[in-house]
Amino acid sequence: MLKLDEIKKPIAEQLDLFEGKFKQSMQSSVPLLDRITHYIVKRKGKQIRPMFVFFAAGNCGLINDSTHRGAALVELLHTATLVHDDVVDNSNERRGFFSVNALWKNKVAVLVGDFLLAKGLSLSIRNNDFKLLKIVSEAMEQMSEGELLQMEKARRLDIDEAVYFEVIRKKTASLIASCCACGAASATTDDTIIQKMHDLGEKIGIAFQIKDDLFDFGIDDVGKPVGNDIKEKKLTLPLIFALKQSSKKEKRYYINLVKNHSENSKKVKEVIEYVRNSGGLQYAQERMLEYQNQAFEILNTFPESEYRTGLQQLVKYTTERKQ
Fold first, then answer.
1. Residue 160 backbone class (left: φ over 0; alpha: ψ -120 to 50; beta: rest)
2. Structural domains of the chain, count
3. What CATH number should be reported for the domain holding residue 130?
4. What is the DSSP letter of 93?
5. CA–CA dist 45, 63 (Å, integer)
6. pLDDT for 101-122, tens place per residue?
7. Beta carbons of 200 and 230 less than 8 angstroms apart
8. Which of 60, 113, 117, 187 is the least buried, fewest Cβ under 10 Å from its Cβ?
9. Burial zone of 222 (CB within 10 Å; 0-12 exposed, 13-18 middle, 19+ buried)
10. Would you say residue 222 has pLDDT above 60?
11. pTM for this one?
12. pLDDT-based confidence at residue 223 (cuts at 50, 70, 90)
């Protein structure tokens, strides 16, 4: 499988340029805020979201200043949600480093998240990027709804496959969809093309999340702790499939394990084994590849270019990655 550094070659210059612009977009005259945003920028992830924005723009037209603002907007709002998520989850770590709330406490972390949201909004309004703002605002709305829907269902553990796909479409896929749509909207005014790119991002996001769920069952040696979703009482696709194949008695037994014994590592292991033996992993893998193929079908309607190739490689990366 190609490494990310190989995939990003056609847009490497743009990403370097983006780094500087993104840092600028987070600047503040308040020393504490500046120190925290500097800490956040230094611990950035793999830049997958900006990559989607730039590749989508190149695939639909020309990369321009509006593309850079779209990428910054997505990153600002996404970073804000991560900072808030760590407060909600009471998490002390993010990508192997201390989270903002671990170092500066919850009150500061919430305010930093709010500041980043406001920065994203003002960046768009200042430059009349209303189309980009509309796309990303809708994604934020969906992400909040998806998170709350998952929380509500986790209490009762009554998630079926339809609800699962609704949750991940809103919670994960909406953000990648907004990256692809923002890239397209920065390069073309054709709403049909923008919608097509949005649909592409949604397919990629769903495949990405299913892959993430598979990691929880130890399919690869990854940084994510095995059984973490079960400990958090999340019903993911492999487990939903396993429960669907079970007798009523079996189903009751395993739902009880997840509901009442998720802190017991021996019981969590039992649930993992049950899912592995039921064909749940194979089923989830097949569904993931279905969405990957649907993404390829959309991409193949665009003319051949290094940007289309970059997107194809990114799609493959999301489903074949090891972490």
1. beta
2. 1
3. 1.10.600.10
4. E
5. 22
6. 887 888 888 998 899 999 999 9
7. no
8. 117
9. middle
10. no
11. 0.90
12. very low
